[in-house]
Amino acid sequence: xxxxxxxxxxxxxxxxxxxxxxxxxxxxxxxxxxxxxxxxxxxxxxxxxxxxxxxxxxxxxxxxxxxxxxxxxxxxxxxxxxxxxxxxxxxxxxxxxxxxxxxxxxxxxxxxxxxxxxxxxxxxxxxxxxxxxxxxxxxxxxxxxxxxxxxxxxxxxxxxxxxxxxxxxxxxxxxxxxxxxxxx
Length: 184
Ligand SMILES: C[S@@+](CC[C@H](N)C(=O)[O-])C[C@H]1O[C@@H](n2cnc3c(N)ncnc32)[C@H](O)[C@@H]1O
Prior knowledge:
Layout: H1 2-35, E1 45-49, H2 55-59, E2 66-71, H3 74-83, E3 88-91, E4 104-110, H4 119-127, E5 130-140, H5 147-156, E6 159-166, E7 172-178
Parallel strand pairs: 1-2, 1-4, 2-3, 4-5
Antiparallel strand pairs: 5-7, 6-7
The chain binds S-adenosylmethionine (SAM).
S-adenosylmethionine binds at residues 5, 8-9, 12, 23, 27, 50-52, 55-56, 71-73, 76, 93-95, 110-112, 115.
């Protein structure tokens, strides 16, 4: 498990400077579709887990929202920090997060769970930091997960699914709400 994570981190570290030119357009298209189904409030605290180079923060410039960007690839974070020197970036493993419990309103996982050795553990860790009834947004790659996997994952970690669908491009997406937390 440790080796797999190290491999993933190295891969993203090595390609961090090329990430935006390769993926900005496609990720923005996904964010645009997803945010058409969810209303962000200016008082929301959002944690973007596996934020990469902070493309979601780039996208959210038009919104007045507090966002904490978290990733375990230092180089990906540095690319984000160059664009947003005054924003909050945390270098941490999604399976061991350094936040205060029940403190955030929205938790996002965009295109990260394919890297997770145990996605249910990763999600369950994140959910600890979500306020009760806080929202979770996940997008996953269709060549790794199918809609049944995603529904099962949500059930396993006690997320109440509000919407689950195939995005116009690439990913499946789920918007849900925290119910309770299960121990693993
Ligand atoms: C495909 S990129 C997605 C980046 C960003 N969410 C986006 O929408 O462009 C996946 C990111 O997840 C990060 N990641 C993968 N596993 C992680 C883990 N266990 N903890 C923290 N970050 C992780 C990688 O370093 C990489 O930056």
